[in-house]
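Input:
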Amino acid sequence: MYSFDYVKPSSLQDALDAISGGGQPLGGGQTLIPTLKQRLAMPEALVDLTGIAELKGVSMSGDKLSVGGATRHADVAASAEVKAKIPALAALAGQIGDPQVRNRGTIGGSIANNDPAACYPSAVLALGATVRTDKREIAADDYFQGLFTTALEEGEVVVGVDFPVPEKAAYQKFVQPASRFALTGVFVAKFAGGVRVAVTGASQDGVFRWSEAEAALSSNFSADAVPAAPVADGMIGDIHGTPEYRAHLVQVMTKRAVAAAG
Amino acid sequence: MPKDTGIGAAVPRTEDRRFTTGKGRYTDDFTVVGLHHAVFVRSPHAHARVTGIDKSAAEAAPGVVAVYDGKQLVGDGVGNLICGWAVSSKDGTPMKMGAWSALATDTVRYVGDAVAVVIAETKAQARDAAEMVEVEYEELPVVVDATDALKPGAPQIHPEAEGNLIYDWEIGDAAATDGAIANAAKVVEIELVNNRLAPNAMEPRAAMAVYDAGTDHLTLHTTSQNPHVARLVLSAFYQIAPEHKLRVIAPDVGGGFGSKIYIYPEEIVCLWAARKAGVPVKWTADRTEAFITDAHGRDHVSKAQLAFDSNNRITGLKVNTVANLGAYMSLFSSCVPTYLYATLLSGQYVIPNIYCDVKAVYTNTVPVDAYRGAGRPEACYLIERLMEKAAKELGVDPGELRRQNFITQFPYQTPVIMTYDIGDFSQTLDAARAAADVAGFAQRKAASEAKGRKRGLGYSCYIEACGIAPSAAVGSLGAGVGLWESAEVRVNPVGSIEVLTGSHSHGQGHETTFAQVVSDRFDLPMDNIKIVHGDTDSVQFGMGTYGSRSGAVGMSAIVKALDKVEAKVKKIAAHVLEASEADIVIEGGAVKVQGTDKQMAWHEVGLAAYTAHNLPEGMEPGLKEGAFYDPTNFTFPAGCYICEVEVDPDTGVVTVENFTAADDFGQVINPLIVEGQVHGGIAQGIGQAMLEHAVYDESGQPLSGSYMDYTMPRADDLPSFKVSTHETFCPGNPLGIKGCGEAGAIGSPPALVNAVLDALSGMGVKHLDMPLTPRRVWEAINAAN
Amino acid sequence: MPKVSMTVNGKAVSGEVEGRTLLVEFLRESLRLTGTHVGCDTSQCGACVVHVNGESVKSCTTFAAACEGAEVTTIEGMANADGSLGTIQQAFQDNHGLQCGFCTPGMVMSAADLLKQNPDPSEAEIREWLEGNLCRCTGYHNIVRSIKAAAAANA
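Output:
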């Protein structure tokens, strides 16, 4: 790692002040720290957000389930509130990384990084969540903008994510065998107004909505209704899966998610 | 006898107290006052000429005491790295070994080849400065695949080896084998790849070198399986220091699997730099560095034909293998695809005619050398894939086809050097079939089908050669060293015993099993016995731990020394107790005159030896005996493994449902430890068969250079295993031991691959190469449809 | 350099650290608690697992400075007060749950967190929990057995 300063403020305002002074926000660090070890990033200062009480925890705000930006995966996975309202979200959080990663990693860190193989972006997108930052609210459809790219501006901090509660939902993750990230993960959410399907791990453009499946499932929410696999063009190809394999898995995992949602 | 701690007892390991409390001491745990840290500047290119190195910025960086390059190393007379086993081509020409300097001087030949080293006060400073070393490279064409490297016009990697061919070696009778194939009723053919693996001992390699200018003496702490061999090679070939001025300590070592046999550039450079810079130097690899510097394993491409007569008896086996040895010849690389491989091609079967041709090849990849099993897994995989394929093509039961061809008369001389001393292959086949409930397989298969899954069952009947090895025999085959082992047994004046052994323990539990042998012999509690290993200042010499040799060779040396101690104890006791030596027995912590109540406590004999007040006429004082044991033959562990899998045809995911091992290791000293060795070996074998693959792209960049892309077996990838042992005692060594360290890794890959192919046989899939990742399995299903 | 203070194995400690100093570096190099190991640089092997405020974390992926005021427990703090092995440590010895010992500290610390949350885990639950702990020697068979035995001993 290159040298940098580290601060751990206890209020959002202090954090924002430190960030505006040139600091980079730090969540649980489970992705950023390995990146720093490889010397792929050279921050001047890191501003640890995990000491800020107002960014942590789960609550209902109106009809939405609100998860603080510095809430850890383990806390989302174990939350009675999440399990009651959106069990698929709790299940997804419980499949990220391993127990030790879940004890440090945060939802804000995950979606700010927007790794194309991360789990959370699929839930945020499929559930049509709203990303709350220190400056504004961003709809999920506007938030994810490609590999490691989001609508966040320099220094903008994810304060929380507000999830609409679906009628039913499920996440199916096909793991990349080495990293245990998603080789392909599909989150399916059924609302009164229709079905949303978001896919992570598969596309070169990061998480995306599979509109053909959404249309088909909105009229018939059954595994049999899932359309043929999407085209392989634009899917990721690497030693773990060709674009064709990933496209195929999108279909298989979508079917399994629909079946699991019941 | 104290059967609770004697031979055959399941004694919990004595070393575990320190390991479970965080008190193990591994190389990186050591430090000294004034310690400095080394970081290597490594080539980012797979093949390039080094046209310039500018060290000035790095030298001026904070904390840096020195930046050294290859020209300085060579200028100081440090010798090139060597391969210690001379293998000749079939035309008699010696192998073509290219020069390998610990720091490259003019050419780099793989990604990770070291070019310079930075010595600084802290590791962070050394790393910062290493980035400031400016190396100018002129890139050269690259070849990573061994078959491609042999093609005309392939990039030339070493001037010494034209066409990248190191040797073209053969064994067996080509004409007779061709004849058998020509006259066969059935010939089964196969082409397969034995995938390249990264060894991945959990402790990364490390070295700490300290130079004492006052005595002109160097001390090296290092992650070694064989510290004495390291000292010998560092002294005799690399001119680091004469042996009496170099102490090598291999403290607790966190796994090796072969990868810590070799003496790598980093140890050489740390020793040289510690003296040159005048500061103690430590280097510890990170995992990324381990992937690009630890010797890899396997990487064979083979074609083979297996001939049968009309009664399904094997009449001949012909094999052509191309072995990738990487960019340089590592210490024992030459013997792995030859004497450790082709000599095992007879498997458990009567095969009257065998011929094998092996071409060893340079490529722009990490050097390849022995990795758990070393040559024997490649042989086993080839013959056991052929046998399963033959059973399918002949339409017979794969277990019975094997049984029909089993060797049943011993000793048995194969056509490929080895003389099998003893075995009972039907016994392990029957035991494995019973434990695996082969009879109930059809029912389980039907249950899988009902939920849309494919179920398969695969066999592997392996044999391997361990207990390496008779020194004269390996010498005649080109080995540069003898492969005996040494031991010294010291009985102290208070009766406690120290056993000094050349067999290094890096997970095998020698501190327990070796002590059991002593406890068994003298009926003494384990607490009284200490096993000393891993330090060239304590133990005079030893050849180290690899090739499942510590039991068969290392313990045999201890037994020889114990024989001498016992003889002297009896002489002393007979003299003191005024009895005949023949009447003396050692039991219950005492040395007794049989049939009388006359006895001496064990410690009284020790005291008598050292006080020397009343010893037999002419006897030297003291009670300490040494022995060198040179084996008379290899040993031949064998067994049968049965793997049962379920395949999800929608995704290609393979799940290991059951894995059964029935092994014959000869005498078992400690069943807990033997079973543990089998479990670990099977996990590595399953890892090779379905998870692990060290992959390069065409430009020589590693694509699986971290745990993000190299799939290590995890707990949830594996089932619990059903293991059992079924002994035939090895006639060649005093305890009847065959060895158990590698069997799991040798026997398991073909069992798994055979099981998956069995599962998919109804879907038209006829061949798969390891690793059977979901992607590969799905693609094969897709292609077959 | 900034100073960090924490409690390690019940003892108050403090030391100077850089922003980039990892918890594992602080433990191993400043406190010389070398039982916690580093086996990878991508946060996967788990040889470095310790407890921070009672939860298992990877000390190679946690900054030392982030642990200001925290209660840290390492493998060196797992034995009983009289020096005898703790239940999990004893179970690992009794069931041959280790060979080279390098992954063992992380395995024991990870297992301790599991048994706190789930005192009677099934084999499948143990295997799933160990996703973040690599072992190259045992094939996990006897590690799973050790954790089962520790759970039984606690019951």
